[in-house]
Each structure stands twice: as C-alpha cells, then as structure tokens.
C-alpha cells in the first residue's frame, strides 16, 4: 500500500506475543495497514483470527508483562505510538483513539450512572467539571439518538436496552472527538433491527464528525455496507487487503473466496443445496503448521505452501493477498527453506 | 449474512487423555505448600499412632518435685505444674486432635451429603424444610451452639463429635445441594431418567459420584475447623476433661502459669497452629487440584 | 426498598421461631433434674418440689416452650437460678461491653483486612501478595485463645505496656480487639482480594482503561465499589464469628460481656441464663444477616431496582 499523508493511522509490521509458561505464542504477526482520514476500514475474520487483539495492541491494552507489542511503525496522526510510554499511551486513550466494545451489556459498570461513565473521558483528559460534563453528555446523547436523553442521564446501565447502551458506548467513544474510533463487533450482541440502526448511526456520525473508524466484524455484510477498505485476517495475519469493491469483485486469497462463498445469497433457493463452508478450523496459534497458515484447509494448496510462508503479493491498486498463487514461486525450488 | 457457523469455532485445545486421579495427583504435587502440609500431617499421624513408643515420658505420671522445669535434654519442652513432660502431653494431644478432626467431619459430611442430594434432587417441600433447617443451624454462632450441646450432653470426647457434626452438616448440605441442582440439568442425568432409572439410583449412582471431588475438598477443609473448635471448647472447659491431654486444655491449664513457665501454654498452641496450617495447605492444594471452581 | 426489607424480615421470623425451638428443646431435655442438680444434696424433697412448681418444670415441654416464647417476645427471658436476677437485665448490662469489644475488633479487622486485600489483588502474585495472604492464613489458623495468651505474655507481662485483663478503660480493650479483629481480618483480606480480582476481569474494567483512566482511577472508580459489595455481606457472617470469638476473648481478658455470661452460666449450670444469652447472641446474628442483605441491596443498583424503586 502506498504511503499517503492523509492517513490517520499507519501500522507496519505489528507483532504481538504472549509469554507463558510453555513458551511464546505469537498472536499477531506482520500486520500492516493504513486508515485514511474519515475512512472506515474493516478487519474481518473468524473468532481467534486476531482482530480484537489488533485493536487492543493499538490501544496499548494488551496485558503486560505477559503480552509484548512491537512494530516498526505505529503512527497515529503524527504521533509515534511505538515511542510512547505506558502513561503516554494512556493519555491518548479515550482522547485520540477510543473503542466501542462488543458487549454493551457488560462493558458498562453496573453500579455507576450512565452519564458519569460516558462523560468520564472529559474529566480524565480535559479536567472538565461535573456540571459541564453533564451538559456535554446530554448533547452527545442527543447526537447518538438516545430518546428522552435528559431522563437517561441518571439511569444505571441495566435500565437501558442493549441498543441504547451501545449508543451510550458510542457517545462515550466520541465524546473527546477522537481521531480514530475502533468498533469491535459493535452490533454482534444486538438484534437485527437495532443492528441496522447502530450501523446507520455510525455511518452518519462518520459523515458529520469525520472520525475515522476501524470496524471489527466477522460479518461480511457489515463490511460491504460500511467499509472503504478491508483487511481479511486469518490466524494472526492479514491474508488479504483491498478496497471493498476489489475484495468482493476479485477475491484473491482462497480463504477470502471461501468466506464469500459461504454467504447465503437471497436470490438462491433456500435449501436447494448445502451451504458451502471452509473445511477444518482455525489452527491453534501455539501449534501453527509450517509454511502457509491456511494450507491445511486450502483447496489450492501446492508443495511450496508447505515449505514457506508467503508474503503479501501486490495485485495493484493497493490490493494484496498472502498467497503463493499470486507469487512467483518457481524461483523458490522445493526444499530451499525448511 | 454472517460467515457460516462451521467457521465460528474457537481455537481447539488439544484434549489430553488422562485419568482424573493422575491429573489431581500431578496438580497436587506441583503445589509445594500442599506437599509440605501433607508431610507434616503424615508425621503427626505417625506420632499419634505410636505415641506410647515415641514419646519420651509417661503423659500422666506426676512428679511434684519436678514442677516447671525449663526445657532440657531430658524434658525437651520442660515440665508442667504437675511435673509432667510437656512434649509427651503434646504428642498424646495429637491423638485427640486427629480423631476430633476426622470423626465429626466425616459424620457431618455423611449427613450433609445425604441432606444436600435429597434437597437438591427432590426439591419442593423436602428442599424447603431441609434448607430452612440448615439456615437455622448456620444462624447459630457455632461456638455457642457447640457449648449448648456440651452443656446438655455433658463434656466428653463423644459429645464433642455430636456437637461438631451438628454445627458442620448444614454447610456441607448447602454446597452439595447447589451442585446437585446444577447436575440435575445435565444431559446424562436426563438420559438416565429417560432410561427409566429410579430416583434413588439417579441420586446415588449418578449424582453422588459427581459430588465426590467436592466432598473430598470439603472434608479436608473441615478437619482444621474441627480441630480449632475442639481446642476452643476444651480451652473453655466444656470439651475434653483433664487429665486427658487435649491441646486446648493444655493451653488453658498452662495459662495459669504463664509468667513462670510460658512454654507450657505456648507450645501446645504452636502445635494447634502448625496442624491447622498443614491441613489448610493440604485442603487448599486438593481444592485447586480437584475443583478449581471452589476457589475463594 | 421498604417492601424488600419487610419481606426479608418476614422470612427471618420462621427461622427465629425454629431456632428458639431447637435451643429450648436442647436445653430442656437434659438428663437429670436441673433443680436437684442446683440444690445438690442439701435440699429437702419438699424444697425441690416447691422450686420445680415455681419454675413450671412439671408442665409438658410444649407448654413450657410457649410460655418461654411469649415471655421472650415481651423481653422476659426468665430468672437466673444462680444469681436470682432477671436474665434480661443481666444481658442488657453486659451487652454494651460486648458491643464495644466487637465494634473495636470489627474496625481493626477492616483497617487491616481491606487494604491488605486490595494491595494483594493489585500486586497479584508479588511478594506483597504472598506476604499478606500468608499472614491472613496465619490469622485464620491461629486459635484466638492462644494468640490472646501470647499477647498477654508479650505486651502485658514482659513489656508491661498494657494491662493483662480487666475492663476499666480504652487500654483494656486494645489487646482483646486486636486478637479478635485479627482473626477475621484474614477472612476479610482474602475475600477482598478474590472479589477485586474477579471484578478486574469484567469488560467494564477494560472500558475504563480504554477511556484513558489511570490504574488507580480504574480501581478506585470502577472496581472497588463492585468488589466491596460482597465484603459488606461478610460483615454479617463476621457478627457470628465475632460473637463466638468474644466468648473466648471475654473469658481470657476478663471482660464482663455476654460471652462471659454464657460461660459462667455453663459452669454454674444456670440454664435460664445460658438459654437467654445464647438466644440473644443468635438473634444478633440473624439481625446482622438482615442488615447485610438490606445494605447489599442499597449498594447494588441492579438489585435496588428489582425491589421496585422504578426507573428514573
């Protein structure tokens, strides 16, 4: 992907490892992507593929000292995240980069009033007084479309529906007008109607506030609807990245093709055939197969796939796929690397 | 519109085939404090069984000319107000403490398990009655309840068993009941039911074996409690009676001469402390190995 | 809120009645005639018969129980055989001393237990954690009567800093309160630690961190209130263990409290006095449970709204 000055976030070679009693587990490897200003970038993959871990690594929320995050570059709008201290990262959290979590039910503190929680970043980062915070939270509640916002200020989380809680979480994420909002499966726990409302709200807010968004999901439908750019993740790596049109028009990694094929199409007659799915399951990160990580489940596997992990092949227009199908591998005779 | 459910499988951990017993023993052996506790308990059991052989003196022989002798090579911990060897009396005290630790715990375990399984499995009125009874027993301050039992039945070792079992069964019943309730919902119980197994069969053949690990933990953790209660009762004069050598009683007698010969009162207390600690370590180790969900 | 409190009180009434019944049966089916026991050999059969009639010992058990129950409800727990005084007045005279001791001990246990538990949880698996947890296990494994003697020996007999026993001022409560408080401090420390560790695993802690709160703010603002809710309920259980412990501490330190009354009653085989003091202690424990449940509901807004306070 070419370097653009208009990127809010630019990540190169992000790697996250966990050190345990039984050695290291590398949960993220070779993660590189950009988020353009005002863009929505998707991270899609199965659970365990490393989507959420990517978000936590960017936020500096990987539990220390067991988790170690390294990168050759992690640039948030001119701030080099790799050079920041723990406290420096903390000061960015909630102010320049914020996060909306998957479970609105459990992500809010049950014993504190909603407005206090939503307004807390203002107290932390801007030293605002309670009265001013309350007024600002009210504005935010109106903006994220919470009905009867005044009455909801003093509510406790359990008194709000899932949809309202997620709106409150979004209000919390946006209250300091961050440069980047990471939404980790923000609609997975919600029912379908509420899901659509929340997604519409996020699109609308992006247009009005101009915040860039990283959208983490396992739902390709949400990707198609929301995102400008997409990164497909598998077993801790990005296996394909492209803009959303290219990804759906020319899926180039066998895994992406499998994902797209497993989406049931409304036009197809139901039950006419078994829904295709990718055989096998996500490998255990502690016991990765040698070579390409997807190889054991891949229908197009070649001898080379067993020997060497493919790099990201450049397919032009910022489109990349981590697959030997698109890489010249005759230059690598079998057995060259173990 | 979501990715097919076949894909939504979490990373699969390798399932190791190993027996519960071996796993437990391995986990237990990794716990150094638990091993240390086990060694101490084994030593104590040995001393208690072979007390007449291993102890240096006669626990009951009085020698008034040898009162309050300081610790020496003959009397390692000195002598008490009747000139009896303190160490010997502590070794004999281990017999009482171990018996009192084990017997009432077993009785309350048996009663509690029976009541708990019955309460959890039958439910309804049986459950209501048993649980209200347990509520009452738990509402009594344990020491006072035990004191009342000792007052009514008289102060001796057997009645200590009765008192401690009466105090202890309710806690066991509560834990077993909640486990039974959880087990009742499991498929294999429903399967047994569908296969026409009787209630009694289900309770004793299917539910009981699944409660056993919890019972082992409860048992091991109630031993130190029982030892503590017995020593407190004996200290207060409503437990084991002199001239028997219960640790609580030894402390109680020794306290009169605290200034002259502090070892007489302090040493049996150390024995209680170490024994209770050792059983607690063993119990904690067993709990962590057998039933991590019970932790704290 | 009020509804919950009322319902909770109603539930504890049958427990109370059951407890009085158990207690009464246990104390009144003693083998051997209590009056004869009391009078020993110097009482003529006529005197024994008169006293027996006076105490209604000839009536059937259940009549005596209902007489006792109706008396107890009116605050009359009978007359002490030995001291020939109203049991209620004896207990009421002794209770403030027990309350004073228990309150001091409770404060000691919170001052030690809660900070130790918090520190252990925050610095999990560190030296501090192991130190405090070892210390608390030691507190739980140490017989109260023994640590009391140890303190008496060191601080009163050897160092002569504090009086050995008696009850004439604040300095007399220091040792008993520390002995009694320390034994429950261990329980409180362990509970605080495990409860805080449990709370720290919740999603909303991650949310708080994602807002850029300092770790201190995360713990004090988001974790502590949730973590201390179960600690508050342990205070009810603490009342029971403090009362049990008070029997021993009062005996050792010579504090004229309810615990000492029950010990004296046993030694003098004074059944009405024992019955009254044990019943009194048990009612206190039940009241403590009641208060804890209600406190719990006040602290946790989820339960509070279930009790029909309505939405804001």
TrEMBL record, chain A:
Pfam family, one: oligo_HPY
Membrane-protein topology: Peripheral membrane protein
Gene Ontology terms: cellular component: plasma membrane
Sorted UniProt keywords: ATP-binding, Cell membrane, Membrane, Nucleotide-binding, Transport
Biological processes annotated in GO: peptide transport; transmembrane transport
InterPro entries: AAA+_ATPase, ABC_Ni/Peptide_Import, ABC_transporter-like_ATP-bd, Oligopep_ABC_C, P-loop_NTPase
Domain ABC transporter residues, every copy: 9-260
Entry-linked NCBIfam families: oligo_HPY
Descriptive protein name: ABC transporter ATP-binding protein
Organism: Pseudodonghicola xiamenensis
Classification lineage: Bacteria, Pseudomonadati, Pseudomonadota, Alphaproteobacteria, Rhodobacterales
UniProtKB/TrEMBL annotation, chain B:
InterPro entries: BP-dependent_transpt_permease, MetI-like, MetI-like_sf, OppC_N
Alphabetical list of Pfam families matching this protein: BPD_transp_1 (PF00528), OppC_N (PF12911)
Single Gene Ontology BP annotation: peptide transport
Bilayer disposition of the protein: Multi-pass membrane protein
Gene3D superfamilies: MetI-like
Domain of life: Bacteria
Chief localization: membrane
GO cellular component, one term: plasma membrane
CDD domains associated with the record: TM_PBP2
Regions crossing the membrane: 34-54, 96-121, 133-151, 157-176, 207-229, 257-282
ABC transmembrane type-1 domain mapped to chain residues: 94-283
Keywords recorded for this protein, A-Z: Cell membrane, Membrane, Peptide transport, Protein transport, Transmembrane, Transmembrane helix, Transport
Entry similarity comment: Belongs to the binding-protein-dependent transport system permease family.
UniProt-listed PANTHER family: D,D-DIPEPTIDE TRANSPORT SYSTEM PERMEASE PROTEIN DDPC-RELATED, OLIGOPEPTIDE TRANSPORT SYSTEM PERMEASE PROTEIN APPC
Name of this chain's protein: Glutathione ABC transporter permease GsiD
Organism: Pseudodonghicola xiamenensis
Organism lineage: Bacteria, Pseudomonadati, Pseudomonadota, Alphaproteobacteria, Rhodobacterales
TrEMBL record, chain C:
Protein's organism: Pseudodonghicola xiamenensis
Location of the protein in the cell: Cell membrane
Example of a GO biological process term: transmembrane transport
Domain ABC transmembrane type-1: 95-296
Any one GO cellular component localisation term in the record: plasma membrane
The name this protein goes by in its record: Peptide ABC transporter permease
Pfam family, one: BPD_transp_1
Membrane topology: Multi-pass membrane protein
Main localization, broad class: membrane
């Amino acid at each position: 992907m070419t370097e653009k000055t208009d990127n809010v976030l630019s990540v190169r070679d992000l790697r996250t490892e966990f050190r345990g009693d039984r050695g290291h587990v590398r949960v993220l490897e070779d993660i590189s992507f950009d988020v353009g200003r005002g863009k929505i970038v998707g991270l899609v993959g199965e659970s365990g593929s490393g989507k959420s871990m990517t978000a936590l690594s960017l936020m500096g929320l990987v539990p220390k000292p067991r988790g170690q995050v390294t990168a050759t570059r992690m640039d948030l709008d001119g701030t080099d995240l790799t050079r920041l201290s723990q406290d420096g990262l903390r000061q960015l959290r909630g102010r320049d980069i914020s996060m909306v979590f998957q479970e609105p039910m459990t992500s809010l503190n049950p014993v504190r009033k909603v407005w206090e929680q939503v307004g807390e970043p203002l107290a932390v980062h801007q030293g605002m007084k309670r009265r001013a915070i309350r007024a600002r939270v009210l504005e935010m509640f109106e903006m994220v479309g919470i009905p009867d916002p005044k009455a909801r200020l003093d509510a406790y989380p359990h008194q709000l529906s899932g949809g309202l809680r997620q709106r409150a979480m979004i209000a919390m994420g946006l209250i300091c007008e961050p440069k980047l909002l990471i939404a980790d499966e923000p609609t997975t726990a919600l029912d379908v109607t509420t899901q659509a409302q929340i997604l519409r709200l996020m699109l609308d807010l992006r247009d009005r506030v101009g915040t860039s968004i990283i959208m983490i999901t396992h739902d390709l439908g949400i990707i198609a609807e929301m995102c400008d750019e997409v990164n497909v993740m598998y077993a801790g790596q990005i296996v394909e990245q492209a803009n959303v049109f290219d990804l759906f028009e020319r899926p180039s990694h066998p895994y992406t093709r499998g994902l797209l094929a497993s989406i049931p199409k409304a036009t197809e007659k139901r039950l006419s055939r078994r829904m295709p799915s990718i055989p096998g399951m996500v490998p255990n990160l502690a016991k990765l197969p040698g070579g390409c990580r997807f190889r054991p489940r891949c229908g197009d596997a070649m001898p080379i796939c067993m020997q060497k992990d493919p790099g990201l092949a450049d397919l032009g227009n910022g489109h990349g796929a981590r697959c030997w199908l698109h890489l010249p591998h005759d230059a690598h005779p079998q057995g060259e690397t173990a | 519109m979501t990715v097919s459910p076949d894909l939504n499988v979490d990373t699969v951990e390798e399932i190791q085939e190993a027996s519960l017993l071996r796993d437990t023993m391995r986990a237990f052996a990794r716990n150094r404090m638990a091993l240390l506790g086990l060694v101490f308990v084994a030593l104590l059991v040995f001393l208690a069984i072979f007390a007449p052989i291993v102890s240096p003196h006669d626990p009951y022989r009085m020698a008034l000319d040898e009162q309050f002798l300081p610790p020496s090579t003959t009397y390692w911990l000195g002598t008490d107000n009747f000139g009896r060897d303190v160490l010997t009396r502590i070794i004999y005290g281990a017999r009482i403490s171990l018996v009192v630790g084990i017997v009432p715990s077993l009785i309350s375990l048996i009663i509690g398990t029976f009541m708990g399984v019955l309460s959890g499995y039958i439910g309804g009125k049986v459950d209501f009655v048993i649980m209200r009874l347990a509520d009452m027993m738990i509402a009594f301050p344990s020491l006072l309840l035990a004191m009342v039992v000792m007052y009514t039945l008289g102060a001796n070792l057997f009645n200590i068993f009765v008192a401690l079992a009466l105090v202890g069964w309710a806690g066991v019943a509560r834990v077993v009941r909640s486990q039974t309730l959880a087990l009742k919902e499991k498929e294999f119980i429903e399967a047994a039911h569908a296969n026409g197994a009787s209630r009694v069969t289900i309770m004793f053949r299917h539910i009981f074996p699944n409660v056993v690990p919890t019972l082992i933990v409860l048992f091991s953790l109630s031993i130190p409690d029982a030892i503590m209660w017995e020593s407190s009762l004996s200290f207060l004069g409503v437990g084991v009676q002199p001239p028997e050598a219960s640790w609580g009683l030894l402390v109680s007698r020794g306290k009169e001469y605290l200034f002259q010969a502090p070892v007489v009162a302090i040493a049996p207390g150390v024995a209680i402390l170490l024994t209770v600690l050792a059983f607690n370590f063993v119990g904690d180790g067993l709990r962590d190995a057998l039933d991590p969900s019970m932790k704290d | 809120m009020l509804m919950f409190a009322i319902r909770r009180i109603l539930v504890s009434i049958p427990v109370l009645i059951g407890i009085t019944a158990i207690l009464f049966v246990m104390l009144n089916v003693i083998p051997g005639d209590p009056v004869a026991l009391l009078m020993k050999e110097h009482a003529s059969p006529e005197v024994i018969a008169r006293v027996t009639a006076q105490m209604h010992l000839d009536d059937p058990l259940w009549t005596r129980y209902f007489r006792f129950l109706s008396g107890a409800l009116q605050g009359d727990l009978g007359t002490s055989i030995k001291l020939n005084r109203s049991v209620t007045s004896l207990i009421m005279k002794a209770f403030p001393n027990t309350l004073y001791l228990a309150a001091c001990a409770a404060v000691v246990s919170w001052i030690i237990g809660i900070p130790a538990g918090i520190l252990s949880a925050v610095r999990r698996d560190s030296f501090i954690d192991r130190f405090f947890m070892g210390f608390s296990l030691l507190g739980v494994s140490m017989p109260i009567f023994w640590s009391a003697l140890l303190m008496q020996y060191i601080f009163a007999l050897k160092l002569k800093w504090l009086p050995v026993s008696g009850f004439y001022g604040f300095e007399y409560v220091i040792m008993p309160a520390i002995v009694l408080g320390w034994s429950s401090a261990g329980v409180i420390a362990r509970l605080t630690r495990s409860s805080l560790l449990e709370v720290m695993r919740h999603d909303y802690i991650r949310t708080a961190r994602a807002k850029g709160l300092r770790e201190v703010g995360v713990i004090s603002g988001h974790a502590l209130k949730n973590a201390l809710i179960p600690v508050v309920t342990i205070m009810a259980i603490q009342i029971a263990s403090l009362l049990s412990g008070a029997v021993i501490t009062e005996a050792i330190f010579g504090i004229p409290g309810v615990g000492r009354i029950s010990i004296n009653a046993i030694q003098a085989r004074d059944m009405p006095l024992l019955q009254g003091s044990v019943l009194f202690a048990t009612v206190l424990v039940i009241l403590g449970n009641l208060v804890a449940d209600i406190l719990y509901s006040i602290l946790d807004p989820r339960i509070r709204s279930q009790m029909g306070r309505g939405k804001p």
